[in-house]
Structure formats: structure tokens, C-alpha cells
Amino acid sequence: MLLSAKNLLPCDGVAYYLSGFFDTKTAEAFYQRLLTEIDWQERSIKLFGKEVLQPRKVAWYGDPGLTYTYSNFTQITTPWIPLLLEIKHRIETETGFQFNSVLLNLYRNESDSMGWHSDNEKELGDQPTIASVSFGHARIFQFKHISRPIKADVLLEPGSLLIMAGATQTNWKHQLPKRRSIAGPRINLTFRTII
Predict the structure, then answer these.
(1) Closest to 106 in 3D by CA, of 193, 37, 29
(2) What's the domain range around 47?
(3) Which pTM was predicted?
(4) How far apart are the first and last CA of the chain?
């Protein structure tokens, strides 16, 4: 399946995008269920020395006992629920990658966002593979090279799958920027392997 996908990055990393990984009906059903079945949390983070609420809601599910630290906040996994295992199984079956956790983000409107960052935390290892699936409203996702003036954008449509692998987290940053136009809610699941 990934062999037919185009690498969005011109160098120094791998980012395969597959639109329609989940069909429209399935993507909408998953979106509605995720809204109600996930234990969404509002978390504060330290930004420039101040405690502020993250501009999105989050959740962290996975195998028992795993921890993940980012933005000076350590999360302990909530046990898998059947819906997340169903999505995970489909991704693993189709891609051949295996994951033991998932970070979920609920972007409520056009003002919710995620700033420039790399998923380069020590718990993920040197060259992590991350599978990102999107449900709800489509949003632009952006990449920029860490040391070269290169950028790449992709519209993450509902039901789409984005695989980031290889040296992507070493050489690239990514973000989900705020939108100027009105945008409805979007849910993103990023499946990862904590080592």
C-alpha cells in the first residue's frame, strides 16, 4: 500500500500520505464515536515560563505502564478501548508497522492548533515511525526542514493516513497552524511505539 503513496518530503525524511484510507462512511462513524468514547482532557503546559491551556484537547491510550513526556508533561497510558484497537489493527495490517500507544488531539475549531515541533522525544527512539489518521474537518498540515529553506504542505482529509518515518523527526519540524477561515472540529490520532 505504501509503495503506491508519494513521499511528500523532497529529502532527508519520509512522509507518505494516503487519502481515503478509511472510506467516508467509516471515517464519519469513527469521528462521532471518538467524540464521545474518548476521555478528552484539557491540559496546561509551560510556555515562556507561564502556565497556559493547550490549544486543543488531548488523550493518551496504549499498552499498560507506558509513559510519554512532552512539553514538560508526563502522561501515563489509559487502557486501550475497542474502537482504538480497531483503528490500530487496520493501520498495522495495511502498513506492516506495529504500535503500542496513541496520542489523540481534538481540535475544536480554527483557533485550536499545534505549533512547530518534531516528535523526537527519547521514548520514541532515533527514527520513529508515526501513523497519523484524521477524522472530522480537513486541515492543512505543514512541514519545514530544520536546516534548509524547504517547506511542504498537505491537506489532511477525513479518513486519511499520514506515515512519518526514517529521519523525518531529525530533519523536519511539523505543525497544524491556526486557520483564518472558520473550521469545524477535527480529531487526529498519532500511533507511536514507546521503547
Answers:
(1) 37
(2) 2-192
(3) 0.92
(4) 26
Q: Which three cell numbers stand for residue 60?
A: 493518551
Per the listing, cell 462521532 goes with 32
- How far lies 34's CA from each of 37, 84, 85, 87, in Å? 5, 9, 12, 11
Question: For residue 188, what is the domain's CATH number?
Answer: 2.60.120.590
pLDDT tens by residue, 123-139: 999 999 999 999 999 99
Please tell me the distance from the alpha carbon of residue 35 to that of residue 25, in angstroms, as a whole number: 16
pLDDT, tens only, 5-61: 889 999 999 999 999 999 999 999 999 999 999 999 987 766 667 777 777 999 999
Distance between CA atoms of 164 and 193, rounded to whole angstroms? 13
Angle between helix axes 82-95 and 24-37 (nearest 10 degrees) is 140
Q: Which residues contact 144 (CB under 8 A, 6 or more apart)?
A: 116, 150, 151, 152, 172, 173, 174
